[in-house]
Design a protein that fits this description.
Number of domains: 2
Strand content: 15-25%
Largest sheet: 7 strands, mixed
Distance between the termini: 43 Å
Shape: globular
Helix content: 40-55%
CATH topology of the largest domain: Aspartate Aminotransferase, domain 2
Protein name: Cysteine desulfurase
EC number: 2.8.1.7
GO molecular function: cysteine desulfurase activity; pyridoxal phosphate binding
Enzyme class: transferase
Catalytic activity: (sulfur carrier)-H + L-cysteine = (sulfur carrier)-SH + L-alanine
CATH architecture of the largest domain: 3-Layer(aba) Sandwich
Length: 406
């Protein structure tokens, strides 16, 4: 049974007050809070077991290496990868997508080749492709969302042309909460010989993921949104694609031998993991994913679906609030504006006085903001520990903001 109050007790920070009010943390889309098991794993990693990995034969190095390398298999289980050798460990989604841009896309794309994107991509899934546009003349092909914020998979598929080499698409919008039918896109792209990179930064947080069934070539996750440490993450790379990739960064474990005249590279995934990694951060990510799997991502999804339904009912009842994205099956992520001249930053500041933490700004999604005709929104993004009572606190705080700013 999913007992949210028991779960909340696993997160120490949720018992604190902010501005004399109980904390209502609704900024999970930016970064989630950490359960005690993750905090304990980090503390133990530094206080009892720390040493550099792979390079030593002494006890501490061996245990650090064992704990660190075990996370590869944990991630593979969490996202349904066929092998842990398809998991490249890194600092998060941004590094993962940049790696694909430099290591896979750059060597095989030339002027006029196309990358298909949706207008609601996070900047981390836009800027690396602009690098290729600037440096190699690659063309970026954009697919818009409709008035409800939905992205029609058939429109993404229709955008595939003879020069399309890659589709880079989010699984779940960090602004609108829109789910994308990435499996349908992957199936169609594979039939046309086009690779697909899926940004799973939000998707992996809110529902079960199985990359083998999805059929994507690349799938990126970031640890700090998955209730793990910042500076942790991974990217799944299908073996055939990994074999096509050139090294991204040089040094450390990505080599077998180095001489004055020649370098022999390691095999993947180590070939793409240069330098001393975020050892303890990655161990903490493993603890977070094991925690999530113990809860059951189906259970997390069901809890958040109930929250989303309740929050939608409450927020749509505020006729002076403009909700961005109204797709029926959206995740528990709500971006909004307020009638009049109220700025998102002012709204957020007033909410903070009531202990409610939300995000305000363009959410690293400026093309989407331009498409929606707004400069900024407030965003309340819910997680596995949030409650309907917290939705009520949010609504009360919004009413106060409206009274003060309206």
């Amino acid at each position: 049974m999913y007992d949210v109050n028991t779960i909340r007790a696993d997160f120490p920070i949720l018992s604190r007050e902010v501005n004399g009010k109980p904390l209502v943390y609704l900024d999970n889309g930016a970064s989630a809070q950490k359960p005690q098991v993750v905090i304990d794993a980090i503390t133990r990693g530094y206080a009892e077991e720390y040493a550099n990995v792979h390079r030593g034969l002494h006890y501490l190095s061996n245990i650090s290496t064992e704990r660190y390398e075990a996370v590869r298999g944990i991630i593979a289980r969490f996202i349904g990868a066929g092998s842990e050798n398809e998991i490249i460990l890194n600092s998060g989604t941004t590094e993962g997508i940049n790696m694909v841009s430099y290591a896979w896309a750059a060597p095989r794309m030339e002027a006029g080749d196309e990358i298909v994107l949706s207008v609601m991509e996070h900047h981390a899934n836009i800027v690396p492709w602009h690098f290729l546009r600037e440096r190699q003349g690659v063309s970026l092909k954009w697919v818009d969302v409709d008035a409800t914020g939905a992205l029609d998979a058939d429109k993404v598929i229709a955008a595939i042309g003879p020069k399309t080499k890659l589709i880079a698409i989010t699984q779940l919008s960090n602004v609108l909460g829109t789910h994308v039918d990435v499996k349908r896109i992957c199936d169609a792209a594979r039939a046309k010989g086009v690779a697909v990179l899926v940004d799973g930064s939000q998707g992996a947080v809110h529902a079960p993921v199985n990359v083998a069934e999805m059929g994507c070539d690349f799938y990126a996750i970031t640890g700090h949104k998955l209730y793990g440490p910042s500076g942790s993450g991974a990217i799944y790379v299908k073996k055939e694609r990994m074999d096509e990739m050139r090294p991204f960064m040089g040094g450390g474990d990505m080599i077998r031998d180095v001489s004055k005249e020649v370098i022999t590279y390691n095999t993947g995934p180590m070939k793409f993991e240069a330098g001393t990694p975020g050892i303890v951060q990655t161990i903490g990510l493993g603890a977070a994913l094991e925690y999530l799997m113990e809860l059951g991502m189906d259970n997390v999804a069901a809890h958040e679906a109930e929250l989303a339904k309740y929050a939608r009912e409450k927020l749509t009842g505020l006729n002076w609030l403009g909700l961005q994205g109204t797709t029926p099956d959206k995740a528990a992520i709500f971006s909004f504006t307020m009638e009049g001249a109220a700025h998102a930053h002012d709204i957020s500041t007033i909410l903070d006085k009531k202990g409610v933490a939300v995000r305000a700004g363009h959410h690293c999604a400026q093309p989407l903001m331009q498409h929606m005709g707004v400069n900024a929104t407030c965003r309340a993004s819910f997680g596995l520990y949030n409650t309907k009572d917290e939705v009520d606190v949010l609504v009360d705080a919004l009413e106060l903001a409206h009274n003060l700013l309206g």
